[in-house]
Amino acid sequence: MTDLTSLTLAEARKGLADKTFTSLELTDAHLSAIEKARLLNAFVLETPDQARSMAREADAKLAKGEAGPLAGIPLGIKDLFATKGVRTTACSKILGNFVPTYESTVTSQLWRDGAVMLGKLNNDEFAMGSANETSCFGPVGNPWRREGNNTTLVPGGSSGGSASAVAALLCMGATATDTGGSIRQPAAFTATVGIKPTYGRCSRWGIVAFASSLDQAGPIARSVRDSAMLLRSMAGHDPKDTTSVDIAVPDYEAAIGKSVKGMKIGIPKEYRLDGMPAEIEKLWSEGAAWLKAAGAELVEVSLPHTKYALPAYYIVAPAEASSNLARYDGVRYGLREQGKSITELYENTRASGFGAEVRRRVMIGTYVLSAGYYDAYYLRAQKVRTLIKKDFEDCFAKGVDAILTPATPSAAFGIGEKGGADPVEMYLNDIFTVTVNMAGLPGIAVPSGKDAQGLPLGLQLIGRPFDEETLFSLGEVIEQAAGRFTPARWW
Ligand code: GLN
């Protein structure tokens, strides 16, 4: 039998249905891979007992022919999703050993469909970061390294644990969240597929909030088809989240292999940055050529407000974060530091519970929302946001079906290499992804090639609201042309 961890989710589904192996065998293979990969620090909590009992349950259902669409498939869960009875920390000291008494809607739908939980995955503290370096559990290693070089690289962030675990074959897929790029950027850094669906497609209920008007859950997977399978289970209307939309969830997998002939693909000229590495430029042209060869038509489009997206995002996101994070006061959850008064208790708890990046965001957010500055910063950023959204609407109104861009401005970098002296250096990673969150649109990152040092690079496709299907069809074309990439094992 081939190594069970190297299968795609779709292949594993077939093997389980054909009784070639059991979910318990598949789960055990992944649990043992996780044990051998602790160096990567992708998991912050392993739940082997729960995994085996869920696998046995799935095997019983498979035997009876009552299996759900993800029956017996072992997954990793980003530690931002509340899991009932299982520690959930958002990788922040301030949540301490918080054990939720409830399950997030997204994860409960995965369990409803038969998936198996292997454990909780590392992420940037409260999902703030682009390198998974702000986690209170320490950084995550990218399974990819530069050719002939042993430097450990970051897997991207904030869903760094999710991307690293999927790329290192520790789980067959993972949940992730994306506020400004946190699904797509780590997917691009690790040669995995990540889709951020349209805002409102997945319920945010039970996901630790960062910036509520931008946060959206989605999967990171080994192939475009696998990501379609996972999103189908994760998506759906939930009365517990008023921003979740009551539109039927399509069979995303049916979009795989569908012809893209005649589709109009926009190439936004504003995404051609000065000083962008030639390799990224080359990858972008290659991607366009693959789509053209499949029958799509390429058109240059303009998204004139792109240059304001990053500054506006770094006002809107911290503003919402400062308000969302007000609840961590040392009284309601996790960590509590003592103080002589209740105010001092709050101050001491928040000072020692939040890491530096989170404190920075809370301070920026509080400042831009404060009386006297609100209009100049927050209100203006909201207006810019409307213009960014309108840029995309204008483009789609001209008949464009999807937009092709690079996913990131560079390949993965070394731990500690970026953002030490200047946080903006780190924020620049999100330049191609934040626009999509600001506009609430779906975006997928698909592995598309490698740079001269052998590191993976990804392309991004941006779609119309609730048209994830077109992204899956186009993503499949890129995947077929580029192939799939697996890192050589060193851990
Ligand atoms: N890197 C961005 C930030 O730090 C996006 C994070 C995310 O999408 N959660 O805010």
TrEMBL record:
Enzyme class, UniProt record, top EC level: ligase
* Chain ranges of the Amidase domain: 25-471
Task: List keywords of the entry alphabetically.
Answer: ATP-binding, Ligase, Nucleotide-binding, Protein biosynthesis
Give the positions the UniProt entry annotates as the active site: K78, S158, S182
- Catalytic activity, per the record? L-glutamyl-tRNA(Gln) + L-glutamine + ATP + H2O = L-glutaminyl-tRNA(Gln) + L-glutamate + ADP + phosphate + H(+)
Q: Name one GO molecular function term.
A: glutaminyl-tRNA synthase (glutamine-hydrolyzing) activity
What EC numbers are recorded for this enzyme?
6.3.5.7
GO CC entries: glutamyl-tRNA(Gln) amidotransferase complex
GO annotation, biological process: translation
Highest taxon, organism lineage: Bacteria
Q: Which InterPro entries match?
A: Amidase, Amidase_CS, Amidase_dom, AS_sf, GatA
PANTHER family attached here? GLUTAMYL-TRNA(GLN) AMIDOTRANSFERASE SUBUNIT A, TRANSAMIDASE
Q: How is the subunit organization of this protein annotated in UniProt?
A: Heterotrimer of A, B and C subunits.
> Record's family?
Belongs to the amidase family. GatA subfamily.
Role this protein plays = Allows the formation of correctly charged Gln-tRNA(Gln) through the transamidation of misacylated Glu-tRNA(Gln) in organisms which lack glutaminyl-tRNA synthetase. The reaction takes place in the presence of glutamine and ATP through an activated gamma-phospho-Glu-tRNA(Gln).
Q: What is this protein called?
A: Glutamyl-tRNA(Gln) amidotransferase subunit A
Query: Which source organism?
Result: Bradyrhizobium zhengyangense
